[in-house]
Amino acid sequence: MTRRDFINSTSASYASLLAWGMLPSAPASAMNLPANGRTSEGKGRKVVILGAGLAGMATAYELGKLGYDCTVLEARSRSGGRVWTIRGGTKETEMNGGTDQTCRFEDGLYFNGGAARIPHHHQLTLQYCRELNVPLEIFNGNNEAAYLYNDGGTGDFANRRLRIKEYHNDMRGYTSELLAKALDQSALDQQLTKEDIEKLVDFLKNEGDLNTNHLYKGTNRRGYKAKNEPGAGTAPGEVTDPYGLTDLLRSGFMQPVFYNVGDYIYEQQTTLMQPVGGMDAIPRAFEKKLTGKILFNAPVTELRKTENGVRVVYQKGGKPQELTAEFCVCTLPLPMLKNLESDLSGTVKRAADFVPYIKTGKIGLQFKRRFWEEDDWIYGGISRTNMDINQIWYPSFGFQGKKGVLIGYYNFYSRAEAIGAMPVAEREKLALTQGSKIHPQYPSEFENSFSLAWHRVPYSGGGWATYDDATRRKYYPALLEPDDNIYFAGEHTTYLTAWMAGALTSARRAVEAIHARVGEYTKK
Amino acid sequence: MTRRDFINSTSASYASLLAWGMLPSAPASAMNLPANGRTSEGKGRKVVILGAGLAGMATAYELGKLGYDCTVLEARSRSGGRVWTIRGGTKETEMNGGTDQTCRFEDGLYFNGGAARIPHHHQLTLQYCRELNVPLEIFNGNNEAAYLYNDGGTGDFANRRLRIKEYHNDMRGYTSELLAKALDQSALDQQLTKEDIEKLVDFLKNEGDLNTNHLYKGTNRRGYKAKNEPGAGTAPGEVTDPYGLTDLLRSGFMQPVFYNVGDYIYEQQTTLMQPVGGMDAIPRAFEKKLTGKILFNAPVTELRKTENGVRVVYQKGGKPQELTAEFCVCTLPLPMLKNLESDLSGTVKRAADFVPYIKTGKIGLQFKRRFWEEDDWIYGGISRTNMDINQIWYPSFGFQGKKGVLIGYYNFYSRAEAIGAMPVAEREKLALTQGSKIHPQYPSEFENSFSLAWHRVPYSGGGWATYDDATRRKYYPALLEPDDNIYFAGEHTTYLTAWMAGALTSARRAVEAIHARVGEYTKK
């Protein structure tokens, strides 16, 4: 039986197709570790977990299933760590002399200050949403109607916004035209047969929407003229004119900041998801499963090795408290671990010192009208600019509501550092001034804001771990092995840095490692 | 003051920017016709409206605002016409000996049998959703994780599904490589300067994700190997290998049926929307505003001109009834108008006879598990195939729920005619047999189905009007003018055929025309 015969047979079972490699890996499912022949070998064994972010809570949740006695120490009064939804009443004071902020968004309005999207292939995140009953909706990452805005620069495109769909379709059109021309001239015929070239030219005609002479002359894919959309009666609509290729090439939109990576790169391809009502629905769902196991407002100050395990000192009500356990799972972000008094090994301490974390910031802006929807036809998605604000994110929920909150900047590295160093009032002013160039409705519609600079957020101290080949080689391995009875988890212990899926998969990895070790003990 | 200075000034008002042509047209808004100086000139004037689809109901709603006394005659027991959501309990018997069908979907499951998406630029549809408080969510039209499946054919791609993202990224990669090569060889240098060529090559490197030698060797944009996604610890993930260009060109995927028009064509570009809970939320919202004005189960049998207006004969409780009015707005689809006894002019009758309507069908399939999400990571979007089923639509709601309904075929013309001619049990069998080639989980997960062939659906008789240049020239104009006191509305009287926005804009056009005429009267 050939592969083709096989797949043609509609009676092929799921399992057999899997065996033939014709299906993706089995669906992510609830973690269900075998107890090595005993149901209770985790029972009563004490584990202290540092941090009630996703990594810490997933660890406690999974170890709990196996009977371990877990305590999670959390410095903040909330769970979730860098999974944090900002809404009316949210309070924060950043480190290094930050202003006290209290969010004044209206009921039902919010933005996700940290993690904000779930790729469709992050099956572990999706699995936990399923397991914990977190309802999801689509996060609209790629919106052809959003804008590109090149501030400064020269030429017709300077200081002018254009729709992503205009840029996309023009570039597709011209590049298809050029390649079709090169193929027509047989410039490339050493590589392809005549028939294949014809097929490729046909493809390019569709790809670029070329005319019968293989020329790109614009097309309704890029939109209609204002007030001249197709309509009733005698209104067929009037198509807009394309920009010129040379103009586009000199427009500045080839810079990486404008490059619409979202359509293409793996993590941002459609489909992306978000929990209904805010990303913190995920940590809140974990928290519900861990009643009584999380100590809040309990920052860890010391992490010590003992003969039989670990001893942790933390503050509670202004007083030092102690907790001993057989194992520790430490999920603290490295910028926090760096400053912790500990018996950690030199290699771990060096990783904490030298793995860089990204500086990044966001501001949520509340407007009294959703002008981006009403005036600009933008429902979710991202506008891009070379200004300091970098990106504007439009909310993928509450469509056509009265008011709305958009993310007025989302930036990284030196820009985030510069803006993060400003008082919150100045950040707001910058977001409004620059954003007004893209949306002139800003000044008349703005109501209030809430901003954050993750590198200044207490107990986080950065956006996420950013490895390159050298740091991955030099420091990463130390975080993968237990340091005596101390295990490490968190996005920084994965190849999914920055993502919730990283935190979650790292938790399962730590749980597996501890449980395997306990299994070895109990076999002895 | 230059344009640039102007737009740089953040104090620029919305109105002044509009005047400079820097903003799209003003937001769509509630219709608010001036009453030509009198507030009550519509008052008491009788209008009979044929059909309680969107065109008919919007006409009654807007005329009602102006004081007209409207009665809507609707042949069915429901409003909405071709805006129809199929859920448990939906009953239908198609014309020409159709089987009685009663839908057995579980509570909360449904599919939109007719209109199913709202483009972001269909501002009139969005305006009515706003005005009538219909909450919206995103319709995920373009999903890079959905499949292409080429049935039959030859080569490696025959009878094998691949992810749209694989095809997209491979074709982008190879065409970018080829064009970069042609540019490197200066094959095109008569058109572009050296600097522009360099910029274009830079663009192509990003567009196709080419390596430093400008070659496409595959990239993680197209995905990771099964069970080898990036993960925790020592799992960086393993990228899949690209298909060969020649193989792709010969794969059959250049055929129009596979061409992923959704990314590109204007009506299907992101963002698309849908009402929460089903498209019939829109007709139900109109219906609420028209209490007592719609006569259901009242099929029209005669449309007559009188000295002062119109006389309409309709059936009610098996008996003919009559209704006279000053004006009639006829929104019947042309296949229905064709068979109506009437005094309509010859040009209108010829339009009804000769404007073709598309044959089209859909089937909703209920499965006991959302395997497309759990196993295949597909959350909304469309798979495409050259089989008779043509497309599979995955629901953009109820993500991660227990059961789900997908649309097992959506096809047109001869395929829709052939499948529509089958008994419903055979349609179901065909959808399952062909769909199983893409989703081998079908046989074990299937529960029940509901299918429809719009050309056989009573009181519709077709999908939508399909004009070409000749029919637009020859027949369309007759539908734009009143035939004495009879006005025409419906998607067939617009350049937005097939779309709800067409029905709605046609309604406003009819209202404007009647009200202008009444204004002329009252001035006399």
From TrEMBL, chains A, B:
Pfam families: Amino_oxidase (PF01593)
PROSITE patterns attached to this UniProt entry: TAT
GO biological process: amino acid catabolic process; auxin biosynthetic process
The enzyme's E.C. designation: 1.13.12.3
UniProt-recorded Gene Ontology molecular function terms: L-amino-acid oxidase activity; tryptophan 2-monooxygenase activity
Pathway(s) of this molecule: Plant hormone metabolism; auxin biosynthesis
Domain Amine oxidase intervals: 54-514
Signal peptide: 1-30
SUPFAM superfamilies: FAD-linked reductases, C-terminal domain, FAD/NAD(P)-binding domain
Entry keyword Chloroplast: no
Domain of life where this protein originates: Bacteria
Catalytic activity: L-tryptophan + O2 = indole-3-acetamide + CO2 + H2O
PANTHER family documented for this protein: AMINE OXIDASE (PTHR10742:SF342), FLAVIN MONOAMINE OXIDASE (PTHR10742)
Family: Belongs to the tryptophan 2-monooxygenase family.
Name assigned to this protein: Tryptophan 2-monooxygenase
Species of provenance: Spirosoma taeanense
